[in-house]
TrEMBL record:
<keyword id="KW-0812">Transmembrane</keyword>
<feature type="transmembrane region" description="Helical">
    <location>
        <begin position="75"/>
        <end position="95"/>
    </location>
</feature>
<keyword id="KW-1133">Transmembrane helix</keyword>
<keyword id="KW-0378">Hydrolase</keyword>
<feature type="region of interest" description="Disordered">
    <location>
        <begin position="107"/>
        <end position="126"/>
    </location>
</feature>
<feature type="compositionally biased region" description="Pro residues">
    <location>
        <begin position="40"/>
        <end position="68"/>
    </location>
</feature>
<feature type="compositionally biased region" description="Basic and acidic residues">
    <location>
        <begin position="1"/>
        <end position="14"/>
    </location>
</feature>
<comment type="similarity">
    <text>Belongs to the peptidase S13 family.</text>
</comment>
<feature type="region of interest" description="Disordered">
    <location>
        <begin position="1"/>
        <end position="70"/>
    </location>
</feature>
<feature type="region of interest" description="Disordered">
    <location>
        <begin position="298"/>
        <end position="319"/>
    </location>
</feature>
<feature type="compositionally biased region" description="Basic and acidic residues">
    <location>
        <begin position="298"/>
        <end position="308"/>
    </location>
</feature>
<protein>
    <submittedName>
        <fullName>D-alanyl-D-alanine carboxypeptidase/D-alanyl-D-alanine-endopeptidase</fullName>
    </submittedName>
</protein>
<keyword id="KW-0645">Protease</keyword>
<dbReference type="Pfam" id="PF02113">
    <property type="entry name" value="Peptidase_S13"/>
</dbReference>
<keyword id="KW-0121">Carboxypeptidase</keyword>
<dbReference type="InterPro" id="IPR000667">
    <property type="entry name" value="Peptidase_S13"/>
</dbReference>
<keyword id="KW-0472">Membrane</keyword>
Length: 548
């Protein structure tokens, strides 16, 4: 049976609700033909929307001197400036300096910081790493972890990699280069790939164009899985069909809408990945992946929003998301009866068409920026968003918008980033497929690259990572005495399928050193709780020792 990460609890630091817009309130944008809509300023905390340590803590320490190159010549290690700032900034990030404001819609060219409204001081969550802290030794980490890796609940395929974020130095490995079933940890690779391929500021458009006959409207899906029908959508801040319908009515002028045609041809191939367990399409964690959908294909988004925490984000999904969205749009245009029955088709070629000529654009709405979609994908472990993100990678690289295209493009982008693409083989972007394979060392390389400052756009993957004992899929973990050292200092993406358990992220040691780790097991034998406890003991051992 397929199984997705459970014990979900929404991030609370930036005030966002489950799946919320969070991070400064960036919203989906509305584009009216012929009008210039200014970008919205985006006040709030830093772009990756991490939990903010208490005010008055020390600022980030000076960067340490460069260290020896990592074991992989293709990955050049640099200082972990971005990640240290993302995890340790102490009440200093009350504005969005530099390129981040632009990513979230602030087109101000003055360079002046935009002050955020005062917020209550949050509780301490993450211990700030110390850039001058001593580096653990390989022998010290091996002594701490070797007994724990042999826990019976983990089964006989336990593959583990630990590295230092600042230097990129590998500190521990056990089957670290062995491709292993990653489950939902796959989303880290998907997030890095789409941020690299599309950029943090990219927004996915949903368009309406004039159909071949007067009054006909073609709704063209661009692949935005968060598109809402109206203000009661599942994802706060998402682009909305009612806004698009208003644009269409205005553009048509005196011509009454007569029919809606749905163009979801941007995505091709099967709507369910063949490697998914048989219960995924109906189990509430997956959906038919189409280029046009509303609310992640949820049948009742308002109810799903109310029950997300109790159901671990499972929700009933509609079987044909594109046609459902089309019918919702037809209703917003005032169509009833037979006229509200939509059909699939292809938008007429524009060829410079204007007004209401066939192919002329009647309206456009745009999704949240990519930086926010990735944040939601990771914090909520949202499989539908993940599959849409993988297809965005494919489209950016000129490949088909399909499962196969997304998988191939993700591997290509990771290779272009200097990561060992030979150690990743994907069938989907969410991790629901059991045919996916990723090595632990690729994951620690990836996390190091995202945090070392060489690619600041990749740091968005850290914003959604759950915190041990506090948020997301780690909310109820790290609360036992044996694992309490990891509470507040382990920040990681988890992955769960039947017989598969994984965790990858960052941890701050007792000496204040920031490490990255990945533990993948794909032949577990104990109960789910026993397996998770065994994984937590490994990461807690890193948190609780200097390992020297």
């Amino acid at each position: 049976m397929g199984r997705e990460d459970s014990h979900y609890r929404p991030e609370r630091v930036d005030g966002s609700a489950s799946g919320g817009s969070g991070s400064g309130g960036a919203t989906g944008r509305v584009s009216v033909p012929g009008a210039n809509v200014p970008h919205r300023p985006a006040p709030g905390p830093i772009p990756v929307s991490p939990p903010v340590p208490p005010a008055g803590a020390a600022p980030p320490p000076p960067s340490p001197p460069p260290a020896a190159p990592r074991r992989r010549s293709r990955l050049v290690a640099a200082l972990a400036c971005v990640l240290v700032l993302a995890l340790a900034v102490a009440g200093l990030a009350v504005f969005r300096p530099g390129p981040v404001a632009g990513w979230l819609g602030d087109d101000s060219s003055s360079g002046t910081a935009v002050a955020a409204p005062p917020e209550p001081t949050p509780p301490a969550v993450l211990a700030g790493p110390d850039g001058n802290a001593p580096l653990p030794t390989e022998a010290g980490i091996r002594a701490a972890l070797d007994p724990l890796v042999r826990a019976a609940a983990l089964g006989d395929r336990v593959h583990l990699s630990v590295a230092d974020v600042s230097t990129g130095q590998a500190l521990y490995g056990s089957g670290q280069d062995t491709p292993t079933v990653p489950a939902s940890v796959t989303k880290l690779a998907t997030g890095v790939a789409v941020l690299a391929a599309r950029g943090p500021a990219y927004r996915i458009p949903t368009r309406a164009v004039a159909g071949p006959n007067p009054g006909e409207v073609v709704l063209v899906g661009g692949g935005d899985p968060t598109l809402a029908v109206d203000k009661d959508g599942f994802y706060p801040g998402a682009a909305r069909l009612d806004d698009l319908a208003a644009q269409v009515r205005n553009a048509l002028g005196g011509t009454a809408p007569t029919k809606v045609i749905v163009d979801s041809s941007l995505f091709t191939g099967p709507v369910f990945e063949p490697g998914w367990d048989s219960d995924i399409p109906t189990g509430g964690f997956g959906a038919a992946i189409t280029a046009l959908m509303t609310d992640g294909a949820r049948k009742n988004p308002a109810e799903a929003r109310r029950t997300a925490e109790q159901t671990n984000h499972a929700a009933e999904r509609v079987p044909q998301p594109d046609l459902t969205a089309g019918r919702q749009f037809a209703k917003l245009l005032g169509l009833t009866g037979g006229a509200a029955q939509v059909t699939r088709g292809t938008a007429p070629a524009a060829s410079g068409a204007t007004g209401t000529a066939p192919g002329a654009e009647l309206g456009t709405v745009e999704s949240l920026p990519m930086i926010r979609l990735v944040d939601i994908m990771i914090s909520d472990s949202d499989n539908v968003i993940a599959e849409a993100m993988a297809r965005q990678v494919a489209l950016a690289k000129g490949k088909p918008g399909s499962f196969a295209g997304g998988a191939a493009a993700t591997g290509q982008v990771l290779g272009e980033l200097g990561l060992p693409a030979g150690e990743i083989s994907l069938a989907d972007g969410s991790g629901l497929s059991r045919t996916n394979r990723i090595s632990p060392s690729l994951l620690t390389d990836l996390i190091t690259l995202a945090g070392n400052g060489s690619h600041p756009e990749l740091a968005a993957i850290f914003g959604g990572l759950p915190v041990g004992g506090w948020s997301g899929t780690l909310d109820e973990r790290y609360r036992a005495a044996a694992t309490s050292a990891g509470a507040g200092v382990v920040r990681a993406k988890t992955g769960t399928l039947s017989g598969v358990n994984a965790i990858a992220g960052t941890v701050t040691t007792a000496d204040g050193r920031l490490l990255t780790f990945a533990v993948l097991t794909d032949r577990t034998q104990g109960s789910l709780d026993e397996t998770r406890a065994a994984l937590d003991r490994i990461t807690s051992a890193l948190a609780g020792c200097g390992c020297r």
